Batch of 4 targets.
Target 1
Amino acid sequence: WDDFALILDIDSYRGFSWENIQWMFTTRYMGPYQPLAWLTWALDYKLWGLNPVGSHLGNILWHAASAVVLYFLTLRLIQYLAMKGGREEGTLWLKCAATLATLFWAVHPLRVESVAWASERRDVLCAFFFLMSSLMYIRWSCLKVRKTKRLYWFSVIYFWLSLLSKATSLM
């Protein structure tokens, strides 16, 4: 329902001029603060114009990337639980469980709705960056020696990007 109001009826996001970028980072047009969604729509507009294929393709690509990240996140968590339970970490059942969980998530109606709804770019962006933040944090926390804080800071940066996409990450 918001596609017309957020994508077609407004032209403040169309371009990368200083005024456009300033608007994207200061507006709360139609409610949420979502500067990264505006930036990706500006890129879509630059590449595709107002052709809806661009917005939908962008959502599909962000969702597919999220599913890949979720697979590795789920695999890492299941491996951790398996090692705690005394099982080997590289067994086939672990990969099957991670694949099944990822497929379940990827085709769930709540996720698919955000992909099909062009103006819900904020949701697919938020999911991707939140999953990346979680993966980086878990990779960092599982290290035996935490000499490097690089993964930790990547986790913080990805979380910050998820907040710039949609505030749902706080919940």
Target 2
Amino acid sequence: PNPTYSMAEGVRRGYAVVEFEREEVAPDEMSNVGRKEGIFPLYPEFDFYTIAAWGWAYQPIIDALDRLGMVDMEKIIVTGHSRGGQAAMAAGIFDERIAIVAPSTGGPFSLGSTRQRDPKGYRGEMDYAENFLRKNAHWYHPHYFNFVGKQNKQPWDAPTLVSLIAPRPLINFNALGDRINNALAHEVGVRAGMEIYSWMGAGDWCRIHWRGSENEYGQKGHDQGPEEFNAIFDFAEEFFFGKPRGPSTYNQAPGSDTWTFDPNEHPILKDWDVPGIDG
């Protein structure tokens, strides 16, 4: 999304910005639920599906960058939006060469909790497994759909995915007025992630950036654009180069100095402990 801005701003700050066409890897079509098109026929011994295929695609690109010798391999950042954000999360999980993982509005397959959501918010009472089965069954392994009607019994949630990234820096993006993702679910995922990161001695490197309902770039709702890319670069410069925190805000609602949902009113509902934090 917004490739012109992201590339121009990235180059201005000294980064190389690389994009790939994910549908050349695997088409985003329900008709491909049988995995007949894209890269799947090349790997008949595996049973991954579309999100995983897109996540895998980051690896040969990183391989090529390494062979070209044109980038600092210690400073690889991956991002993507919506289902592309889920792919970026998958890329970060499976390739530890990635230094910063920056999914944008990836829902329950990035940092959004399935178990703890605002019931009055967007998708607050949705059965994700049922919804994705009806609309995008090609995205995920069919085993996921065993949890239709019983998603709270699935053996993973946002902290599981976060722990597979930690302690590498992880920044999530969402927007007030985004009619796709549940705000409390994302903040709970980040707050749980911060506990995991703190246990690993990296507590400051799990964050969320909230965009307001409108901004100077004209962004609204479910979108990834200039504000998100500025926050990525600010975050990266803080981590890679020790620069002072830039103008981007983290872990707080727009126009506020605190979370969108008060942690005292919405404690993390968890049945696990973090050594040294929970006692």
Target 3
Amino acid sequence: MKQNNWFDPFFILENLSAEEKLIQKNVRDFSNNVLRPIVVNDNRNHNFNKGLYREFGKLGILGSTVKNHGGAGASSVAYGLIAYEIEKIDSSYRSSISVQSSLVIHPINSFGSETQKDKYLPDLISGNKIGCFGLTESQGGSDPSNMKTHAKKDGDDWIINGSKMWITNGSIADVAVIWAHTDEGIRGFIVDTKTKGFVANKIENKFSLRASITSELFFDNIRVSKDSVLPGVIGLKGPLSCLTQARYGISWGVIGAAESCLEELLEYTQTRILFDRSLDENQAIQIRLADMQRRIVTSSLLSYRLGQLKDLEQMNPTQVSLAKWNNVRMALDVARDCRDMLGGSGISAEYVPIRHMLNLESVVTYEGTETIHQLAVGRSLTGKSAF
């Protein structure tokens, strides 16, 4: 095996379609040329450049699997490769794209009326408008059915009151997909963020995902028309199906973060000389490097197969829980181990593992904590819910 083929010993990349290879190349080039030069400053300054969204749109990576309204109609594997290449730079950028694609574009495309699709999807897919997804609340977390946000009918309108917490893109969004209790059950609403009574406050002082915008949202008697309701779904099935889409992308994205850490560590161990030889000549170092490769490669095979099942419409939520749980844990452990093996350099912002490690501390929690996914798999094994 050639040394430079350490990531793909089972030739996943060679079996991609021509379109998938082109998409991956284009996103990799964009990530290296546009995102890599700015990520350290964005992370340091708690900054996200809204102008990136039009660049994402031009690249065709927003709602990439949508087959109309300007979408690229790409495969699910291609979407996974997009997440992988973006998160290889930073989880913050991938998180922002995931929200736009899986949590805003997806529910409108899947549950919206044709009028809603025509109104919102072209601008969201092109990046001319930014979206956010309002489900999580401060008291809810892993139990979204415990949401307090509610909407009541008032003639032909709806009045929404409540709040949401930890909302990616919240303070920069033009459009919000808000989930609320109603007399009919949980419903989704497409809300213009300029609506009177809609307030978004940026959450400051994060140690993780610093290059993305995270916000809390408040709704004080905001009035929306009946045309704002997503007509195609009632109940938790709606938001949970969105989370399944996002978790699939996460399972790919974190592989990129882990690979980024290992690539840098490989270079470091080749050039770091201790006791008259390079670090990578030591058995202890090689064993740890090999173990990282084992975990990255098995995670890659898992996500690749999951993408194939998704394109065949055979993917189910428990499979996604298993992949999200396994791959994020893998990536976090690899990032932590790489940081340790870099010695004193491991805490420097000039090296990527500390930044990826801190980001992955959020990724292992959001879109379902590790425990929630373990219990989802446990329910599948036993037929009994322990939630």
Target 4
Amino acid sequence: PVVRANRHAVSAGHPMAALAGFQVLEAGGNAIDAGVATALATNVLQSELTGIAGIAPAVVYLADSGKVISVQGNSAWPKLASCEYFHKHHGGEIPLGILESQTPAAVDAYLTALEHFGTMSFAEVAAAAIRFARDGFPMYPLLAQLIDEKPMPWPTTRKHFKPEGRAPEVGELFVQAELGSTIQFLADEESKAAKKGRVAGLKAVHDAFYKGDIARKIDKFYRENDGLVRYEDLAEYRGGLIE
């Protein structure tokens, strides 16, 4: 159906993600705050299609100036990846799997958008995502089908999406406790730095993901599974804005 509104509206791939953004707007946040809240919720609600360690390019329209600005949000190839590497080891092809992986860009993009255009803290816009992951949400047909049909070679992936050894059934509560803990950890790190100001809090979130325990766990996983992403790739990553 056509949805009309006279104050504000949010469109998303899942109604609960749209609700997360709408609640931020109702609480006084602006469109950027709502956009990040919606994106984070989508990372949980549609986690087989998008993730917090993925990409998140965004376009921002500034009504006052008429400018259109892009938040970079696209991943960078790790330093160990090169044309020479893939020619030498894989016949010039990039094989499906872990070697396709690039440096995660989404968290940086969310924080860049919040810093330059938002008004709320990371914890405020992440609250719904944390709740959906920690407490769960009813499984819906498309996600259940994707989980059931998609090969999952990694034990950690199977544990996440098939905790009972099978795809969750439609209507069954789908809990992603570890994902919720990860997002909550970022919010907690922000809280520790919040006394220094909102921007300092956002920087603490960035450091927690790209230079802290999360980055080290990512590095460890890629080393153990013959991937190319390393701690240094994460620690040096910054996307920025494109005008």
